[in-house]
């Protein structure tokens, strides 16, 4: 009997053959000046500035997904200080090749896709300039200035089934595409809050949401099935929010909701559709 290649035999047999994992982060020279975006590759080395927004969190997210799906070669490549260095080097090389500068001053969104064999594929595009306050807000205001709203928010009318493909960021995203298909515009300023079969808000289709409940910001608990985003982790570690259950039936039209992701940082909007009057 013919033997399967080692890379195939190491995979979780339930994983679709073409599945890849990915994360998307921001490269922005502005971040070099913020002390909260200084990171140490090892526990003994001093922090150094980074132009890549929360890069260790993105490495950890990729590693967590690789571990779940049994991408053993990817695990080996991404683990430890060397894994973070490999990711940093890949990002800098991409900027150098694509924009002729390892430290490209203009903001860029970079998608890092990782195959089961540990190969990294990077693509990028320019993204809007933002102030530093968007990336490290301390704290999240329950009454932000109206002029600073950056999102229009809709509550999904249909449920999504929680799965490993909602808990981890993978190329298996049909459920999100289907959920967003009813939106009248594909503009990135419109966010859709997705809901599971129990009526619990899971996450946003593009972001992590935060809801003001009992004098504290609450983000949906990971057991609701949503993605464990990088900015979500940062907000929880900093005490900006706590995990909890947010029921779709309690989301109100006009309600202020903060949203965050690894490219646009933190912004807020109001619920325009799908919530209760």
Q: Beta-sheet strand percentage?
A: 25-35%
List unreliable stretches of 5+ residues: 1-10
Per the principal axes of the C-alpha atoms, what is the gross shape?
globular
What separation lies between the terminal Cα atoms? 64 Å
- The total strand number stands at 13
**Order of SSEs:** HEEEHHHEEEHHEEEEHEEE
Q: Return the average pLDDT rounded to an integer.
A: 91
Cα gyration radius (Å): 19 Å
Structure description:
Helix content is about 25%, strand content about 25%. It is of the alpha+beta class. The protein has an 8-stranded mixed beta sheet with strand order 8-7-6-13-12-9-10-11. A 3-stranded antiparallel beta sheet has the order 1-4-5, covered by helices on one side. A two-stranded antiparallel sheet has the order 2-3. It starts with 5 loop residues before the first helix and ends with a strand.
In short:
This protein is α+β, with helices and mostly antiparallel strands and 277 residues long. It has helices spanning 6-9, 55-69, 72-78, 80-99, 164-167, 174-180, 230-237; strands at 21-27, 38-39, 48-49, 108-114, 120-126, 151-159, 190-195, 201-204, 208-213, 216-220, 242-244, 256-261, 265-273.
Entry keywords:
7 helices, alpha+beta, 277 residues, single chain
Task: Give me the secondary-structure topology.
Layout: H1 6-9, E1 21-27, E2 38-39, E3 48-49, H2 55-69, H3 72-78, H4 80-99, E4 108-114, E5 120-126, E6 151-159, H5 164-167, H6 174-180, E7 190-195, E8 201-204, E9 208-213, E10 216-220, H7 230-237, E11 242-244, E12 256-261, E13 265-273
Helix pairs in contact: 2-3
């Amino acid at each position: 009997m013919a033997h399967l290649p080692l890379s195939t035999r190491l995979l979780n047999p339930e994983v679709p053959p073409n599945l890849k994992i990915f994360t998307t982060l921001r490269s922005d020279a502005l971040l070099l000046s913020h002390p909260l975006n200084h990171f140490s590759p090892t526990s003994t080395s001093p922090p150094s500035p980074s132009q890549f927004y929360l890069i260790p969190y993105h490495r950890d997210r990729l590693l967590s997904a690789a571990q779940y799906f049994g991408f053993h070669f990817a695990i080996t490549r991404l683990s430890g200080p060397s894994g973070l260095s490999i990711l940093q080097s890949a990002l800098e090389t991409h900027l150098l090749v694509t924009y002729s500068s390892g430290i490209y001053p203009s903001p860029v969104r970079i998608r890092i896709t990782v195959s089961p064999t540990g190969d990294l594929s990077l693509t990028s595009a320019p993204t809007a300039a933002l102030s530093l306050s968007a990336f490290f807000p301390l704290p999240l205001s329950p009454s932000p200035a109206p002029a600073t709203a950056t999102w229009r928010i809709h509550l999904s009318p249909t449920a999504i089934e929680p799965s490993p493909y909602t808990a981890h960021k993978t190329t298996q995203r049909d459920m999100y595409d289907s959920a967003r298909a009813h939106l009248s515009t594909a503009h990135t300023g419109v966010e859709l809050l997705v809901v599971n079969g129990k009526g619990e808000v899971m996450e946003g289709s593009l972001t992590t949401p935060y809801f003001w409940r009992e004098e504290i910001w609450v983000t949906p608990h990971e057991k609701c099935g949503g993605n464990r985003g990088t900015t979500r982790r940062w907000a929880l570690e900093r005490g900006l929010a706590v995990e909890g259950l947010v029921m779709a039936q309690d989301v109100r039209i006009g309600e202020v909701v903060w949203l965050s992701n690894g490219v646009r940082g933190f912004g807020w909007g109001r619920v325009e559709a799908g919530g209760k009057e």
